[in-house]
Amino acid sequence: MIEGVKLIVTDATDDVGKQMSQIEDLIQQNVDLLLVTPIDASALVAGVEKANAANIPVVVVDRRVAGGKYISFASTDNVQVGRNAGNYIATRLGGKGNVVEIEGQHGAGPTIDRGAGFHEVIDQYPDIKVVFKQPGEFQRAKGMEVTENVIQSGKPFDAIFCHNDEMCGGAREALAAHNLTGKVILVGVDAQADAMAAVKDGTMDATNMYPPQSGKEGLLQGLHYLKGEPVQETVWLPSALITKGNIGAYTNITY
Questions:
Q1: Confidence class of residue 252 from pLDDT cuts 50, 70 and 90?
Q2: Is there a contact between 207 and 182 (Cβ–Cβ < 8 Å)?
Q3: Which of 36, 162, 172, 175 is deepest in the core (most CB within 10 A)?
């Protein structure tokens, strides 16, 4: 805890309406600084604009917002994360094959940006087809459900890109249940502990480092602002594609 700073934490549990209500409540409390991780990039613009109208400085962390004014944005470049996944899969497929994309939560900044970066790369390959694309809501059970749907559809596929490691965990379970482990390229995002272990043992091919310190960095920028100090408009946390070949360099960054 930083001396002189009282931190109020709320959790909207993926409910946009609840998050809006929480923002309005914090504005009524006349907080000195608002840090927000928008559940939906567009829907939360109204909340940021209400804070703007109340002259409360806003810092956006982890997930971007599509409008309103904020003093700083702290995150990882999700478009580049998507590019990393696209380049890896395209290279592994030799420029030809069928791909499944399990998206995150509809409307969320990481879903939009990771998908954009992924397609920026994959769409350059006429012989690589995204044959199935469906939201998995960033949830493990949904990732398994989507993968089961693909398998049951009978559509041939060679690779799966999951927008996070939780969904990759579900996809991994579904592939294992159908004896497809190691036969389908599997790529995720976050470098969570179980995903790192799966990359190490070969049941998952790659993940992307996604540092969880965006909240800390955002708070620091907000405190700089309140003290009249210079503020970074954008704070990019580092990312990297992690495979079995380089995992040894990243064993200390998982969570």
A1: confident
A2: no
A3: 162
226 and 244 in contact (C-beta within 8 Å)?
no
**In this predicted model, what pLDDT tens digit does every residue of 110-158 receive, in sequence order?**
999 999 999 999 999 999 999 999 999 999 999 999 999 999 999 999 9
Residue 230, phi then psi, degrees to nearest 5 = -60, 145
Q: What is the predicted pLDDT for the residue at 251?
A: 80
Torsion on CA atoms 175, 178, 183, 189, rounded to nearest 10:
0
Show the domains of the chain with their CATH numbers: 16-76+212-237 (3.40.50.2300), 78-208 (3.40.50.2300)
**CA 82 to centroid of chain Cα atoms:** 10
Residue 11 makes CB contacts below 8 A (sequence gap 6+) with none
**Measuring CA to CA, how many Å separate 99 from each of 12, 118, 133, 138, 160?**
33, 11, 9, 18, 6
Average pLDDT across the chain, whole number = 96
pTM, 2 dp: 0.93
Residue 154 has what DSSP assignment? T
